[in-house]
Amino acid sequence: MSGFVLDFGALVIPFLFKFLILFLYLVINDLSGFVVKFYHAP
To answer: What highest taxon heads this organism's lineage (predicted)?
Structure first.
């Protein structure tokens, strides 16, 4: 069972890490545009 968990973690953790990096990149990218729109909104 522990071997399965380790294998599962070895597969999932890098995927989650890449997803997190991409998510943070998109959030930061959108956030700068969102802040500009928010502050310039009527």
So the answer is: Bacteria
Q: What is the mean pLDDT of residues 25-35?
A: 83
E strand or H helix at 1 = none
Q: How far apart are CA 16 and CA 22, in angstroms?
A: 10
Residues making up the chain, counted from first to last: 42
Distance in angstroms (rounded) separating the CA atoms of residues 7 and 5? 5
> Token pair of 10, please?
């070895």
Distance CA 17, CA 13 (A): 6
User: First vs last Cα of the chain: how many Å apart?
Assistant: 59
Tokens read off for 41: 């909104």
